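**Polypeptide and fold**
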Amino acid sequence: MRVSWFHSLWLPLLLLRLAVASPATVTVTVATANLTDNTTQAYHPPGIRILQAMRPDILAIQEFNYQVGAPADLAELLLGPDAHYIREKGGGALPNGIVSRYPILDHGQWPDPYIGNRSLVWATIAIPGPKPLHVISVHLVQRRAALRIPQATHLLRLIRNHFAPDDYVVLCGDFNTATRDAAALAILTDWFDDTAQPTDQNGNPNTNSPRTRPYDYVLPSPALAPHHAPTVLAGQTFPDGLVFDTSLWNPPPPPAEWDDTAANMQHLPVMKTFHIPLN
């Protein structure tokens, strides 16, 4: 097709206007998941398929146990052969970890004085753009709500002392909170942002197995929160982020199967999307 002089002049001007109106960004998805079963507290095919279907760029994982291979094998299954991962050391029965499609620049763990079988894990990840992303993966106390209050205070103090106020930070994990009015969540959201509350297709934000409690969170820091964007998966848009329940999809995105969420799953995963400026 012949291009006229008008089109040859108009097209570059249009592209320039679009570039000015829409600053260059990169889309980064962050998920949190405690998808082990109640019997083994390890990852099995249903939970693995769910996360493969969601395809997060960065995954905060709780109960990072895999009975048929090494942690590296599970990380590769979840995010592919180029996945980077860290898993807490020290022999905790329910270790926290982080898996990423982007390189991990630094990582560490903080002791949790309020629980004995896991620590608080963090990683600094080289996302595109001028600043890295700090990700914290946590699994707060389950049955003693009163302990979650000093635990949350301790966790927030560690985070604020370790990272700069204008850093991109995201706190992820299983908070075991019965409601969004929980005192521990109020402490954490004194700095972190819970304005965008992920839901499923029916508007349900709850992530425990009976779908009655909001256990799981992806909370951005003040510097990261303005870059929140709707999460899009398999043609469906979730403005505040996604709570993924396979039984609500017909069919669910592959390789997830319709009954994977019902397969003795303790929690549902949560995912948020961020449009990170490249400049």
